[in-house]
Design goal:
By secondary structure, the protein is mainly α. Helices cover about 55% and strands about 0% of the residues.
Length: about 55
Amino acid sequence: MLRALREMRHLSMADFRLMTADLSGAGLVGTSVEMAHPAEGLRKRSVASTLVPSPA
């Protein structure tokens, strides 16, 4: 999964390391439209992903 995210976002290793710190908590956060794009990219790379609403 991490490799797929790095490839999809065209991140440098330094930027990717910063992003992984965020993933260890709440994961990726954004609107449903913003999250649909990375979710589809992960599915194309055979990585299961689920979009869930954040708690209010």
